[in-house]
Amino acid sequence: MLTRNEIEMLCVRGESVNVDFKREQYKFYDAPPHDKSELLKDIISMANSGHAGPSYILIGVSEQPDKSGKIVGICQGDVIDDAVIHQFVNKKTNRVVPFASYVVASGVEDRDVIQIIEISPCAIQRPFYLLKPFGKMSENAVYYRDGTSTAVASPEQVKAMGEDAALKKAKPVVELPEDVRIERDWSAVVVENAEYSDLDDAAVAQARKGFVEAHMGRITLDEVERWPLEVFLGKVKLAVDGKLTRAALVLLGKSEASVKLSPYVVRITWNLADGNSAYEHFGPPFLLNTSEIYRKIRNFQIKILPKNSLLPISVPKYVEKVILEPLHNCIAHQDYSKQERILVTESVDSVLMENAGTFYDGMPTDYIDGVKRPRRYRNRLLAEAMADLHMIDAMGYGIHDVYQSQKSRYLPMPDYDIGGDHVSVRVYGNIVDEAYSRLLIAHADMSMADVINLDRVQKHLPISSEASTHLRKLHYIEGRGKQVRISSYIAELTDKRAEYIQMRATDDVHLKGMIVEYLKRYHFATREDINKLLFQKMHEALNEKERLNKIGNLLSSLRVSGEIVNRGTRSRPRWELV
User: Fold this and answer.
1) Radius of gyration from C-alpha coordinates of the chain
2) Do 239 and 201 have their domain in common?
3) What angle do CA 44, 47, 52 make, to 5 degrees?
4) What pTM was estimated for this model as a whole?
5) Does any domain span residue 300?
6) Which residue segment(s) compose the domain that 515 sits in?
């Protein structure tokens, strides 16, 4: 039975897979089945979630904007009798659901109690389901708690529940085929001998900052820093019932505390592949030490010198995002049961990152366009905590962002190898083919699909016949068979575009000056007048559409700066000096 202090602690932590807040009492007495089924669904969902400890429905607690709970209470007369709830639930389910209902004083005037429904740990008995439809609930459907909401389990998840029960009992509850296997969440296991003193103070402080960044606009750092450590760790799912998980030691643990994870290996090894045998091992806390690894990597400006140009374009070999995003994914998806290190191998032109285990959900290319969302993680609790600490993007944008960053710096796309029982990703920090980089300079709006196919061309990898036909129509590639290459015509064009990029600021000032001088002399100008004035004066690297857009941008810039005004209409402008 919960005490008032324990209820307040749950309120601070907020809703989770085993805690649900209800501001008002369920509609029950004299209510239709559709309304009464809400209570039934919530109890069954909690029971099916298989939480290691008790689960709680707190009736008379309101969720606040910062996701914490506030005790508001309910009237004593609104309490639903415990025996009534038991009879209501257990007459409809395939087996008895173990739970208790009781009240605790709320301390709120006129709403003097909180009703608590406490569902006992019942992984052995799962799955629970209705024998007949009731209200909005279906017959034989297995409802479970998914985060802070309710979902219907898939057949695979129902099998997993049965398998979990079979592992916990001498006699299986559900007969399953011999080839059925379930993967347990390695990161969610509690480390019984771990103590809060095993956590690194600097890592915890950075974790609080990361939590605020991940929940930007919803909570302040001052608020988070006032939370007791136990509350904070519960919020980010690194502690279960106050006990530290393996994920907590991986992300926030002191280096010497990693022995408590033995025999599992929690280590990242950085090494140089240029013959000088330099290397360094990094253990926990990974929240801090991945940034240390990034700082070890040699980083400087790459100069792309277009043909027949004295004005190079400079871009950094690497930016933090393109190293930390794949590295953090290695940590989140490492198969720690294999007892292997994560490897970071730095060569002259690239960085190779490798983790144990297969690519867990789909293919890397599925995530390039930023549309696909990951449905599962190998180490779910670890991945969710890393998302809460602003280390990874839980919505699947990470790979998309890495590809976009490489494109914006005119560098090759990453290479993924997901063969066998390891996943590796190579991030390039140098040019493979200058013609490719020049082409990206010329066409900043090029589609990612075209960029990826051109990247394969520069690496002498095959592309589909449809992609080849498309790129030839655009004059991006030339040659046949194994001699396909990026077009020399485009390479010459990109030289001019690169020169234009370097001269753009000076060119804009000159063109704006021409507009102002024209208006001083002739007092007004139409858009057609301005087009005739500037069109042939603009850089030859710009096509007709780009020149017209640029003229529009120049006029807008002069208008915003207060130098000119449109005294005509939007469709028929008449530009004059202010």
Assistant:
1) 31
2) yes
3) 165
4) 0.55
5) no
6) 503-577
